[in-house]
Amino acid sequence: MKRIISLFSVLSSLLLSLSALSACSPEPKSKSYYGIFDTVTTVYDYSGMSEGEFSSFADRVYRELSYYDRLFDIYESHAEGGTCGVFEINAAAGKGVVTVPEELIDFLEFAIEMHTLTGGEVNIAMGAVTSLWHEARMAATRQDNPIAALPSREALEAAAEHTDISALVIDREALSVRLTDPEARLDVGAIAKGYAVERVAKRLSAEGYSGIVIDAGGNLRAIGEKPSGKGWVTGVKNPDTSSRDPYAKTFEIKNASAVTSGDYERYFTVDGVRYHHIIDKDTLMPSRSYRSVSIVCRDSGLADALSTALFNMDYESGSAVIDSLDGAYAVWILPSGELREHGNLPN
Fold first, then answer.
1. Scanning 151, 204, 207, 339, which has the fewest C-beta atoms within 10 Å of its C-beta?
2. Assign residue 222 a region: left if phi > 0, alpha if psi is -120 to 50, beta otherwise?
3. Is the pLDDT of residue 105 over 50?
């Protein structure tokens, strides 16, 4: 069964979309789709397509993102058409190889690159641990379950024994994948959406499209620029909902991506304490260092990975990662409300 997103998460995404596209310019065409990567995805056109052209174009974006959504789904099989994805890899853990499309091989190799870049802070092999948190969150949201509970420390530590990414073995030539550990599970949520958006955006850009924005649940990817030569003004959502200013920081992007990871969308509460979905590999608990981390860089998949990784790093370590990249910018919001930033916006 697929993950269920809260109405608050949907509204947050829509609010970010409206902010991102509010700069003075002709009214854009837009079309929204529901359910891809369990969120609202909106395609915007500033290039001047006709209504018919834009409708066909947006539907194409939807189809291409939907393909990746099915490949990356860990909760439901979509192999009825003969295409195996992450669900089938998990189901075959410790049993044998799974033949997958080349697009999934590309993604898994990217995931390993992100694991290396972030010192293991982005680890798609954390599924044994994150599944325990997912189950606890889903149980807490059921109307027939008034008592929320955390995963036990014993269960978390036992699951952590099965999170070594070396258990993921890829054979590109054979287009096959296997998990050598029977208890290992992949959870690609930290990078899947950003990666998929980037793959679609790169294809569109190569075909000459410009003046397009894809907003996948607040994960923004600008393709090219507006006809005026300007970019789009977007912002970092203020986690303090009591503030008069809904955005803690604004900036302009063109031909780039902006992604935020925060503690205020997917969470549940136990004994008055809120537990969000970004799990620290060292503590096996939700990280408490920040309210949100936002990344701006060219590549949406990289931005998605970095927003998660830096959420679980101290400021100095996260800044060092940003320094190692060309044209990357990060904004941290601390629990106190303090804002820190580092790096350079992509040119």
1. 207
2. beta
3. yes
**Distances in Å between the alpha carbon of 143 and those of 42, 147, 322?**
30, 10, 43
Q: Where are the domains of the chain?
A: 1-347
- Angle of helix 51-72 relative to helix 192-206, nearest 10 degrees, comes to 140
Task: Report the pLDDT value the prediction gives residue 60, as an integer from 0 to 100.
Answer: 98
1-347 folds as T-fold (3.10.520)
With vertex at residue 242, the alpha carbon angle to CA 236 and CA 244, rounded to the nearest 5 degrees, is: 65
Reference 59, options 211, 200, 270; nearest CA is 200
Cα 118 to the center of its chain, rounded Å: 15
Listed residue (305, 287, 285) closest to 295, CA to CA: 305
Distances, alpha carbon 307 to alpha carbons 300, 302, 328, in Å: 10, 9, 11
Show Cβ contacts of residue 219 under 8 Å, excluding neighbours closer than 6 positions.
193, 194, 197, 257, 258, 259, 300, 303, 304
Q: Sign of the CA dihedral 307, 229, 42, 24?
A: positive
* 16 membership: H or E segment, kind and range: helix 7-20
Q: How far apart are CA 117 and CA 339, in angstroms?
A: 24
What is the mean pLDDT of the segment spanning 36-55? Answer: 96
Residue 226, amino acid: K
139-164 residue pLDDT tens: 887 755 556 789 999 999 999 999 99
DSSP string, 252-308: EESSSEEEEEESSSSEEEETTEEEES-B-TTTSSB--S-SEEEEEES-HHHHHHHHH
- Average pLDDT over the chain reads 89
Cα separation, 135 vs 278, in Å, equals 14
Number of CB atoms found within 10 A of residue 212's CB: 24
